[in-house]
Design brief:
Layout: H1 2-21, H2 24-31, H3 35-49, E1 54-56, E2 61-63, H4 65-93, E3 97-103, H5 105-122, E4 126-132, E5 146-147, E6 168-171, H6 174-180, E7 194-195, E8 202-206, E9 211-215, H7 225-233, E10 238-242
Parallel strand pairs: 3-4, 3-5, 7-10
Antiparallel strand pairs: 1-2, 6-10, 8-9
């Protein structure tokens, strides 16, 4: 049944091409089909409708009253399809609604707020709900639409796109370095005051080939990176932080 309906729709389209050009030859050339196939399909359509749609002669093709009605309806259908495509294209370019994002604290403050601002300027009807955390979330189960995370192994059940590359660097204020000296090797950090997250008491270092883990110590640890950054700027110790904060 579906195949018959499809073929019948094809015959309507073929007829409309002949009706618009009033020529089997021109319509066949436009459609890249043979004139005989085109003629047979129009005859089949006339048989199915029980009406003659075209008046054929050796010199010209004319429309019957029934042919005019079919052409008029086909032009309406074609116009409706064009209107639908334009509407869908417009809807695709218009972004609106609430976008829920979860992102780490330092990235949110250094990059995400500005990104959201620029995006809002292009799409006025968008709203943002930002969760500032580094907690793991399964986007298929959580309320978030987008998660920004630092990882080399994104979850396989999610679509991931690389946004940027960065490195962690050790930094300290000039006052701290003047007082305690500048470490020359990662192992020198064991003799310094290091500012760290409670869950990051071991700092990894890479030389391109191997990894070196250094157990650090210090008088201050906190689960807030900006608190640690502020402490480092005050000269309280050495901080290992992403270089995009420079």
């Amino acid at each position: 049944m579906m195949q018959k309906s499809h073929k019948k729709m094809e015959r309507y389209v073929l007829f409309s091409e002949v009706a618009k050009r009033l020529s089997f030859a021109k319509a066949a050339d436009s459609l890249s089909i043979s004139r005989s196939y085109l003629s047979n399909q129009i005859k089949q359509l006339e048989k199915e409708l029980g009406n003659s749609l075209l008046i054929r002669s050796t010199r010209q093709v004319r429309l019957t009253p029934a042919g005019f009605k079919v052409l008029e309806k086909m032009l309406e259908i074609n116009s409706a399809i064009i209107s639908l495509e334009r509407e869908l294209e417009q809807n695709q370019s218009e972004i609106s609604g609430l976008l829920r994002i979860t992102a780490p604290e330092m990235f949110s403050q250094s990059h995400l707020t500005e990104i959201c601002h620029h995006f809002k300027q292009k799409h006025q009807d968008i709203e943002f709900d930002i969760d500032v955390s580094a907690n793991l979330h399964d986007l298929t189960q959580s309320r978030f639409d987008l998660a920004i995370r630092s990882t080399n192994t994104p979850p396989e059940n999610m679509v991931a796109k690389k946004l940027m590359s960065y490195q962690h660097i050790c930094c300290a204020s000039p006052e701290y370095l003047d007082k305690f000296g500048q470490p020359e090797h990662p192992l020198d950090l064991v003799e310094h005051h290091c500012l760290s997250n409670p869950h990051s008491k071991t700092w990894p270092f890479y030389d391109g080939k191997s990894r070196l883990d250094v157990d650090i110590q210090g008088a201050l640890c906190a689960n807030n990176q900006f608190l640690l950054l502020h402490a480092a700027m005050q000269g309280q110790g050495i901080l290992k932080a992403p270089d995009y904060l420079e």
